[in-house]
């Protein structure tokens, strides 16, 4: 056996993404380079690690076993690096955060200074749906999660980062009056929903239930980004977080339709398991957030209050 750490890292990324193309993009390598390294790694085993069926890559049972060992090897190597940095007085380790899809417009601003000032820290962020975010948190796979609704079945602690205001959004094909419409407007508009379980959808449905209005649902999509493009294309209207449509409002691709009772107000919050002992890196990050979040709000998110409230 003469495999390298680089080959182990590539193999694990292929396992994670189930795609040579995606692995090459995330590792900033060409597809041929990824394929060559995978082939060189495979040639050291008499049993196949992967199979190609059609255009899809599948991991064999043997490949999954090798991946578990490879992950342990990489973790041990990282532990050596972290320990070396710790002895040099450098904060080191890995910070892991899972965020819901709309959180990508928020989380980077609360990370930049911390990661810039602590170069010994590795960082992993998983952008996914609410169910997977909470699953990762519950299993202990991540230190923190970014959500807009507190989970009902998990005991967590929270640090509120900023407000999450949701408005009725449409494209510019139809002109709406500046005064606030009654909630009956929802009876006449084709609405686009997020998938079941989404925090945005839960907030929408709670609002509709309390408002006693009948909704004519037209589409259901699995991300705010997809909904935003559907609204721009004229497929319908949606209640969306302001944070995710700010640039489109500026570029006049979307408009806010004023409705009584809107915006729906909630909060973006960083959560972690109650009574969990945070790692030195996670604890340091939480302290950084608590001390600096108001600075981040003033620097990057002042437009929320200045423009739309």
Describe this structure in words.
There is one protein chain. This protein has 3 domains: 5-86, Orthogonal Bundle (Arc Repressor Mutant, subunit A); 91-162 and 267-308, D-Maltodextrin-Binding Protein, domain 2 (3-Layer(aba) Sandwich); 164-266, 3-Layer(aba) Sandwich (D-Maltodextrin-Binding Protein, domain 2), CATH 3.40.190. α5 (112-117) links the parallel β3 (93-100) and β4. The mean pLDDT is 88. Strands 3, 4, 5, 6, 9, 10 and 11 form a 7-stranded mixed β-sheet that branches. It has a two-stranded antiparallel ribbon with strand order 1-2. It has a two-stranded parallel ribbon with strand order 7-8. The chain contains 11 helices and 11 strands. It has helices spanning 5-17, 20-27, 31-42, 61-87, 112-117, 130-139, 199-211, 224-232, 246-250, 280-300, 303-308; strands spanning 50-53, 56-59, 93-100, 121-128, 144-147, 156-170, 191-194, 217-221, 238-241, 255-257, 264-273. The chain is globular and about 70 Å long. The chain is of the alpha/beta class.
Distance between the termini: 64 Å
Instruction: Give the quaternary arrangement of the chains.
Output: single chain
- Tell me what portion of residues adopts beta-strand conformation: 15-25%
Major sheet: 7 strands, mixed
**What overall geometry do the principal axes of the alpha carbons give?**
globular
The CATH superfamily name of the largest domain is: Periplasmic binding protein-like II
Helix content: 40-55%
Number of helices: 11
The CATH C-level name of the largest domain is Alpha Beta
In the CATH hierarchy, the third-tier topology of the largest domain is known as: D-Maltodextrin-Binding Protein, domain 2
| CATH architecture annotation of the largest domain | 3-Layer(aba) Sandwich
